[in-house]
Design brief:
35 strands; about 750 residues; elongated; about 45% strand; alpha+beta; Ubiquitin-like (UB roll); single chain; three-stranded mixed sheet
Length: about 750
């Protein structure tokens, strides 16, 4: 006898079954109609079990419970004697999902969006989920600017109670921004204001940047940029009143209208300091970048608060709070500020924790730390510690966090997490330079041998001009104070004649012992004492100046020399610098205990100026001077040379300067090089630091006297790619103010490192 059959609609209306029945005790439960669902799953959802008394109320509860699982599209409960019979019709499962007509978005991206809302192959088919899937598909396309998107879904039944879903997509044409209008702007031209925006109308590069496609996130960022533009120029009450985004009926063109109220232009009336002053007020005021009479600028106000906060954090006040409270005088169009300083509690670092270093020893990292355990917190020392660890070159990433110690309000831990990169190299490869030709190289190097921070390298390098075999070793911390010691042994052959740089060859074998002493956190000085033996080979057509030198001083001079190198490095990065300066002064002297008596002095200055987060200007200058002493001249094979991809681009390497009797460059005792370079990332690669482009102006000269008439210039474009196989440098330059004897080379490149 059938007890009840309760449909989903009747359940929703809380209806009772059609017929009243007499309660009975369940002796058994039988489940019918299931194919994929286990009987145990059904028993688990039923609110009754064998031995219970079945009633109409419990029957309704059972039906509601089974429908709520989402597994079934029909549920019937019947009675067969004292047996409870549950008849089920399962929902079909999704066997296959296909997308047709999707060109802009990849199937992987679409499937990921479907999975987020519960639609995937193998899951139970639900019409409600299918409708959400269509909306999600449209949302994905709308976010890409495809406002004419149409989606038609087909559900095809398959055997074994399965279905196939087919999403037929008509993407349509992408909508483009045709106009951006700013209403209410009076103090600045609309053209100047729109230059601050990322969003723009179609242009030459928008096919690549896609900035002519509307994005709510980009518009929000542009509105904040617009607000900052006004606030930094005195308009303290500037507001964006409203923004309208309209689209044409064919959903192809978008028009954006921004309504603004500029308000009056304010100047700074007064600047006060209040709160708990733990440092002298005079020092605080030096950190404030807004002064009475200045035009109001939110940027300088924010910078002032940050400088004060950073200064307090260097004394241990890690959680200092500085707020600039404004006082507007609308009649006089002036604004005064009171910097309220709340230093909070003084904090010290309880423990320095290091993680991620599976090969590098803890001591190698800890000896670079300038923030010590048990010392007062210092943001400056923490930042310096991170920079020093990063400059080791052993890690891909260095992350520093300062979590508060649980249960203590005056302690933090310093967590240093590193991601190691391979520091050993076994390399057999080749490179090619437009000047040096084919470069064959092989090297075995370990910059962090046994995780100790010591460097060992053995290398071979061959090129059209140079052949080098070298062995080197360096211990950067031979003492706890950071004194480094090392040595180099080398064998070099220079074939200048093979590249038309002079009719001579030299073969040099020697070695150097080195000692480095740190002077400050950024300054170091290095000393070297070396000996080498040089063999000079001349030809019948070698210039007279070379023959005279060999006749006077011999063809096999030996050399005992000392060199001194002072270096100050304040750059923020070695690979991708954006700010800071680099100084290097060096000198080399051939001692009179051997055959060569000479000295060479050089100085290099490099400075990076960040214009924005993406754009940087680099200035570089080099000067060199050399001569002999006693009765000896500067050896001709010790001359300075310039020209090429690393100095004055657009001229063949080493060729700028005076020529010998054969018309070959002979170098000189004086060198001057200058570079101005505008650096910027490769468009579309975002923060990828492996690729960088630049526009440059180069100048340089080599001669035996200082005279600007010998300067050579070039302008051009360049690129640097730090590839997995070595750095690739490319430049395209236009030389000017050149001499007819100069050797121009507009396109230059080098690939691979030189040992």
């Amino acid at each position: 006898m059938r007890w009840s059959r309760v449909a989903v609609l009747l359940i929703a209306l809380h209806a009772a079954s059609a017929a009243a029945i007499e309660p009975f005790v369940i002796r058994d439960i039988r489940v019918e109609g299931i194919q994929r669902t286990e009987a145990g799953t059904v028993f688990g959802y039923l609110p009754v079990k064998v031995g219970d008394t079945m009633t109409e109320q419990k029957a309704a509860q059972a039906i509601r419970a089974l429908f709520a699982t989402g597994f079934f599209q029909d549920v019937t409960i019947e009675r067969d004697g004292n047996i409870l019979v549950v008849s089920l019709r399962e929902r079909p499962s999704i066997a296959q999902i296909d997308f047709v007509g999707t060109r802009e978005l990849k199937n992987e991206q679409l499937m990921a969006g479907m999975r987020q809302i519960g639609l995937a192959e193998g899951r139970i088919f639900d019409r409600g989920v299918l409708e959400r899937a269509e909306q999600e598909l449209k949302r994905l396309y709308l976010s890409q600017g495809y406002y004419a998107i149409k989606v038609d879904t087909t559900v095809t039944p398959l055997e074994r109670n399965r279905v196939s879903l087919n999403f037929n997509v008509e993407e349509g044409q992408i909508a483009k921004i045709r106009q951006i209008k700013i209403i209410g702007a009076k103090s600045f031209s609309e053209k100047d204001l729109l230059k601050q925006f990322v969003l723009t109308t179609p242009g030459m590069m928008t096919w690549y940047t896609k900035n002519d496609q509307y994005s709510r996130q980009k518009l929000s960022a542009d509105l904040e940029t617009l607000r900052s533009y006004y606030l930094d120029r005195g308009y303290a009450e500037f507001v964006v009143d409203s923004t309208q985004v309209s689209i044409t009926p064919d959903k192809q063109d978008i028009f954006i209208t921004i309504n603004v109220t500029e308000g009056p232009k304010y100047t700074v009336a007064d600047v006060k300091v209040a709160g708990q002053l733990l440092i002298p007020e005079a020092e605080v005021r030096k950190l404030i970048k807004v002064n009475p009479g200045d035009v109001f600028s939110r940027a300088r106000l924010t910078e002032s608060s940050k400088l004060i906060t950073d200064r307090l954090s260097n004394d241990g006040y890690a959680f200092a709070n500085v707020n600039a409270v404004p006082e507007l005088n609308r009649q006089k169009q002036q604004v005064g500020f009171t910097f309220l300083i709340d230093p909070g509690r003084r904090v010290y670092v309880r423990r320095v924790n290091i993680s991620g270093n599976t090969r590098t020893r803890d001591e190698v990292i800890r000896r670079e730390m300038r923030q010590l355990e048990g010392a007062w917190y210092s943001a400056e020392k923490i930042s310096l510690s991170r920079q020093r660890i990063d400059k080791l070159g052993y890690f891909q990433q260095v992350n520093v966090e300062t979590p508060a110690v649980q249960g203590a309000n005056d302690q933090v831990d310093l967590d240093v997490a590193v991601v190691e990169k391979p520091t050993g190299r076994l390399l057999f490869g080749a490179g090619f330079g437009s000047s040096e030709g084919l470069v064959l190289s092989g090297s075995v190097a370990q910059e962090n041998i046994f995780g100790s921070g010591r460097h060992v390298n053995i290398g071979v390098n061959t090129s059209k001009i140079n052949t080098t075999y070298a062995l080197g070793y360096t211990n950067p911390y031979s003492t706890v104070d950071g004194v480094s010691r090392g040595f180099d042994i080398y064998y070099r052959k220079l074939d200048a004649a093979d590249n038309s740089l002079g009719r001579y060859k030299t073969t040099t074998a020697g070695g150097v012992v080195r000692l480095g002493v740190p002077l400050t956190e950024f300054d170091s000085i290095r000393y070297g004492l070396g000996y080498d033996d040089t063999k000079i080979e001349l030809f019948d057509n070698s210039p007279l100046i070379y023959k005279d030198y060999v006749e006077t001083f011999g063809s096999n001079p030996n050399n005992v020399f000392i060199n001194v190198n002072w270096q100050r490095d304040r750059r923020d990065s070695l690979i991708y610098p954006t700010e800071g300066a680099f100084h290097q002064a060096s000198g080399e002297v051939g001692l009179p205990v051997a055959d060569l008596e000479y000295y060479k002095l050089s100085y290099r200055y490099q400075r990076y100026f960040p214009l924005t987060q993406a754009f940087t200007v680099m200035l570089n200058g080099e000067i060199g001077y050399g001569d002999g002493y006693g009765s000896a001249p500067l050896p001709f094979f010790k001359n300075f040379y310039t020209g090429g991809v690393s100095s004055v681009r657009g001229f063949k390497a080493y060729t700028i300067g005076p020529k010998d009797s054969n018309g070959d460059p002979r170098g000189g005792s004086r060198k001057l090089v200058g570079n101005v370079e505008f650096l910027f990332p490769f468009p579309g690669l975002g923060n990828d630091r492996s690729v960088r482009l630049s526009a440059f102006v180069d100048a340089g000269m080599v001669d035996d006297k200082w005279d600007t008439q010998f300067l050579r210039y070039s302008v051009g474009l360049a690129g640097l790619w730090v590839s997995p196989f070595g750095p690739l440098k490319i430049s395209a330059a236009v030389p000017f103010r050149s001499d007819p004897l100069d050797r121009e080379e507009p396109f230059q490149f080098t690939f691979g490192g030189v040992f």
